[in-house]
Every structure is written in structure tokens, then in C-alpha cells.
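Researcher: I've got a protein sequence and the SMILES for S-adenosylmethionine. Could you write out the 3D structure of the bound complex as C-alpha cells? I'd like something to compare against our soaking experiments later this week.
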Amino acid sequence: MESITCCAASGEKTLDKAYWDAQYQSNTIGWDLGEVSPPIKRYIDTLSDKNIRILIPGCGNTYEAEYLLKRGFKNITVIDFAPTLVENLKHKFAGNGNIKIVLGDFFEHQGQYDLIIEQTFFCALPPVMRQKYVWKMHQLLTDEGKLSGLLFDRTFEVSPPFGGSKQEYLQLFKDAFDFLKMDLCPDSAKPRANSELFMELRKNSQNKVVLYEFEGIWCSGSVNTVTHKLAEIEGVLNVNMSSNFTELLIVSKNKIPLEQLQKEIAYDVTYKIKPVA
Ligand SMILES: C[S@@+](CC[C@H](N)C(=O)[O-])C[C@H]1O[C@@H](n2cnc3c(N)ncnc32)[C@H](O)[C@@H]1O
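Model: Sure. Here is the predicted complex with S-adenosylmethionine in place.
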């Protein structure tokens, strides 16, 4: 298999906008397929309503948006926080009223979309941000909105990209989304053959999805106790702690009062929890 290493950085590097912008400036864009990813192309071909609001986060050179435009979609937004890239995109799509190009941080973006397309954005984020990704996607989607696209079903020695597995994703998105599809792709681009899952997730708008800042855990041993205690609260469906123990995603049938969460973790006075604004 060809290398699909994203770029030459170490996982310890800060993956901020300066980092990504430098990759575009030096044209070190090993992740760029140069064309719309085949499974996403196939998926777009199944969509009939050309007026749906579509978002592509961490869009890069966004061959997906180009293909959507070609197919007549009229309400596309792409967002990326690398200024060099976004400047190029503004030239490339100048005068096209069917696409909006946003320079900004996805996690600060506001809007409502019927469809969000995932294409090597999730895997570019430090894994500690995965709970935040689920929360933000849930917020940005309309009640029946979908998150569709590709996730890696493998790990990498050099990151980014940061990989994962079907089992991990099923646990991560559980109850915040309904799983319409999470299957190995038969038609990935050659360098990614047999290593991508196609996901089609529908927002579960019945359930509450809240992200909390968590303080006081320093080792993985304490995570299980905390998550089990919180999962036992009536109405709680899924509890997921970030890998650096600072963020906690809680999915529940009804709003859980903060005092109730605090009471459950009060057995350790150093534990503190508060919702992310
Ligand atoms: C691996 S690249 C993928 C680009 C494109 N999706 C593709 O497949 O070619 C990841 C992209 O995400 C962008 N990115 C990373 N974190 C971001 C954030 N928080 N907000 C917006 N863009 C972000 C980077 O600037 C980069 O363009």
C-alpha cells in the first residue's frame, strides 16, 4: 500500500492554524487527493435535493465542493482556518453565489446545516478533540440533519492523520446520532484502499448532547469510576471522556441538572465539572 501519511509533523506539534497554513505555504499537502474522494462522489450522486444546506469543515482544496457545484447544489459552505488556502479558494470560486467560503475555526462556527461532509477533517484533529467534534456536529445540524463521509479504520505511526476503529466510533457517536451506515468502503481512493469507513449518521434530535469541562483526573484509572457513576444517573445514555481527561460528553434523554452531576462526583473533592459555553 502507498503511504498515506498526511505530512511530516510529529503528533506533539500544536495543530493550530499556523501549522496548517505552513503546510499549504510549503505545498506539503500529502493528504490532498487531487480529486473528489470516490465514496463521497458516489454518495453525492444519491442526493436529489439541490437546495440542502451543506457544510464541509476543514475543507482543504475541497474537490467535494467543486463536485457538488458541478452537480447543481446551490447552498454550500466550506470552512478552513488556514489563511493561505482560503485566499486561494476565494480566487478559485470567485463570483459563484452557490458557495460560501469561510476563513475560521470550525469549533467557533455558527449555522444550521442539513448535511455536513467529513473528509479528512476528523483525522486531522488531535484525538482529545473527538468529544468536542461530536458535540459541535450535533449543534450545527438541523433536526434531521446528517453527518456523512469518511473515517479511517486504521492507526498510523506518524500523525496526523490520527486513526481509529469502527468500535471506537460506534461508542463515540452513540445516542447523539443514529447510525445509518458505518461500513468499510469498497471504493476508496487507491492509497486509502481497505482503510476507510463510510459513515452516514443522522442527528438524534430527541437526545441532549452536552460537553463539560472536567477537572481533577490525572490518570486513566479514575475515568471508569467517574463515567460509570455518571452513566447510572436516570436518563443518561452515553458518557465519553476525552483522552486527556479534560472534556466529558454526556448524551441523555432529558436535561441533567449540573448539581446532580456534581453530587455524583463529589466523592473526590478535587473533581469539578462545568458545561462548555
Ligand atoms: C488533512 S487536511 C484535509 C483537507 C481536506 N478535507 C482534504 O481532504 O483535502 C485538514 C484540514 O483541516 C483544517 N483544519 C484543522 N483544524 C481546523 C479547525 N479547527 N477549523 C477549521 N479548519 C481546520 C486544516 O487547515 C486543513 O486544511
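Model: The pocket of S-adenosylmethionine is lined by residues 6, 20, 31-32, 58-61, 79-82, 85, 105-107, 119-121, 124-125 (CB under 6 Å). DSSP finds eight helices and eleven strands in the chain.
Researcher: Great, I'll pass this along to the crystallography team.
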